Amino acid sequence: MILLISLTIAIIFGAGAFLILQRNLIRIVIGVILISNAANLYIIAAGLSRGEPPIYPLPEGAQVSDPLVQAMVLTAIVISSSIAAILLALVYRLYVSHDTLDLEEISRAERRAAERLDSGESLDDRESSEGRPEREERP
Amino acid sequence: MGLIGSNWLVVPIVLPLATATLAMLVGRRSAPYLGLLTASGILLSVAAIGLTVLEEGTIRYQLGGWEAPLGINLYADGLAVFMLLMTAIVGAAVSAYAVGYFTSRQDESGRVAGDSGDRSGSFWVLWMFLWASLNGLFLSADAFNLYVTLEIMGLSAAGLVTLERRQSALSSGMRYLFVTLLGSLAYLMGVALLYGALGALDLATLGELMYPGAATWSALALITLGMALKTGLFPLHFWMPAAYSNAISPASALLAGLVGKASFYLLLRLWFDVFDGGLGPGPGQVLGLLGAAAIVWGAVMAVRQRRLKRLLAYSSVSQIGYLFVLFSLATTASWGFDAWSGGVYHAFSHACAKAAMFMSAGAIVRSVGHDDLDRMQGVGQQMPLAVAGFALGGVTLMGLPPTGGFTAKWLLVSASLESGQWWIAVVLLAGGVLAALYVLRFLNPALIQVKVGPVARPATQNLEVTAFVLAFGSFFLALLSAPLLALLRIGTPFASVLLVGTP
User: Fold this and answer.
1) How far apart are CA B372 and CA A121, in angstroms?
2) What is the pLDDT of residues B151-170, one digit of tens each?
3) Hey, are the CB atoms on A123 and B369 less than 8 Å from each other?
4) CB A128 to CB B112 under 8 A?
5) How many domains are contained in chain A?
6) Residue B75: helix, strand or coil by DSSP?
7) Fewest C-beta in 10 Å: which of A1, B73, B104, B201?
8) Sign of CA dihedral B279, B281, B286, B287
9) Residues β-bridged to residue B74
10) Is residue A39 less than 8 Å (CB to CB) from chain B?
11) Do residues B314 and B361 make contact, with C-beta atoms less than 8 angstroms apart?
12) Residue A32 domain flag
């Protein structure tokens, strides 16, 4: 059982790490989500070796499996789902302003902007010339 | 209990949390007043907690009355109060600064007004969440609760970075969020390993049960890696320059001053309270080496920058190196307290100085419209107070006598000489010289006497004054060394050594 769950964690973590190294932002976000799920499984695994699962009819006096890890994982799941929401919202804003999800292209655009700044344009609070389009909260 | 009951420990956490929620409801007009009120409330409660800890020793509070192995404890010792105090002082200054920062935006043309007011509202909400998570992080005595505060901290800090309207801020905020998430996930896996191996989450219980073994070593490695990533220790600092220089200036001040210190504090807490000096001298040496490399590399990169805020960001890379040097010095007990308190003291003085420098840089950028170092001639005549604040903060970074940086460096250098690691002393002193170089990169053009007119958009007095006051505080921080070091002695992991009689 321990071997099985550690293999699962390893595969999920590996897939997440692979996706994080990609150029497409959506893939990176999915990678982060996979890694956070691997971490959640990891916590569950931390409580696996102690006691018996409570759903199984237990003999008298047997120790029940640790409930604390499950409480922790619930908290961690809530946190990771909100993180996913925020990441996707940020990716959406980037897509709206750059018209691309490719990390390389976004950094190229930024380097161009930085060069423009260096050549003497003012670093102002006003919108840059290619600026982000007007806010569009309701698509 | 004398001055206050132990349940007062929740005040610095609950107060900003409540304000954050309220600030969302009341909207942008009242949010600044609410923020200032909360800031003064936190200052008062932290002062009360600090006095109580000074008089009566450490305070422990059991949330909901549940006892340690099962429930979550809040715990205030000297180190926690020290960090709370740092956060309260820098936080109050940044709050006062932010009031001016956002109102002066609204005074501009009507086009900008609506949006900037909007962002002012979000600033207060995010900043109050950030403050609550910082205070919670300093007070928590539970490994999983620390993870929750870490996540709140990372999310609100990334939100603060993306408040700036330029495009580059959006993507650097997202990079920052990725990095901080990976850092806290590594921490979470470390906590899971610790819980699997030791079956506890309370830090004190973990410290008692700690034994060297495969699981605890891997937990130490994961947690250290995650926190080094979040703090921006060389060579994991790659996200820092963009995030710090692209954020709005109050947010840069908070990030550089406080957020980096929080993950460092967590590392400090776990290494010396839980992992018992890093389970031997080896791992500490690695962190110390990386810290020394960061001091030199960050300073050299700072000297080479052409923009004021990027210069400050690289200077942070360098200053964070000083914090990590303590890990290679404090692993040996007899001079451990010197090194440990020197590093913590450096965190305090750097937080004040760097926040003040970002604040004055923000005032300057606001007024002259750019942060190009080559075009800063005569800024000293236009904005004397902001430049003076920058200079005072810069002197603190160099570590000259009356400043807090001096006390910190004195303790670190004497610890490194006593422990026979003289090369660390050389790096520490060289870092001070390089700091002088990059501070002068700005001061030199700024103080040139040239004919200048008044600035295009004069900043409100508030911005320059708050930056100057905070820098002034960091400048004279060494005068408070005695009470602050006495505070740090309370509940320190090196307490047993102190009884033997180091001065």
Assistant:
1) 10
2) 999 999 998 988 877 777 88
3) yes
4) no
5) 1
6) strand
7) A1
8) positive
9) B61, B140
10) yes
11) no
12) yes
Least confident of A77-81, B42-46, B261-265, B327-331: B327-331
CB B105 to CB A79 under 8 A?
Answer: no
| Residue whose tokens read 């959506």 | A26
* Geometric angle at alpha carbon B145, from B141 and B148, rounded to 5°: 145
Cα(B23)–Cα(B121) distance, rounded to whole angstroms? Answer: 7
- A122 vs B: CB within 8 A: yes
Retrieve residue A78's tokens. Answer: 């809530």
Q: Is the minimum CB–CB distance between A86 and chain B shorter than 8 Å? A: yes
Q: Which domain holds residue A11?
A: 2-99
With an 8 Å Cβ cutoff, are B192 and A98 in contact?
no
Give the model confidence (pLDDT) of A70-123 as tens digits. Answer: 888 999 999 999 999 999 998 998 888 888 888 888 888 878 877 776 665 544
Taking the C-alpha atoms of residue B46 and residue B138, their distance in angstroms, rounded to an integer, is 12
Contact between B167 and A110 using a beta-carbon 8 Å cutoff: yes
Q: Which residue type sits at B185?
A: L
CATH number at residue A48: 1.10.287.3510
Residue A62 Cα to chain centre, angstroms: 39
| pLDDT tens figures, B274-327 | 887 556 677 888 888 899 999 999 999 998 888 888 899 999 999 999 999 888
Check residue A130 and give its pLDDT. Answer: 38
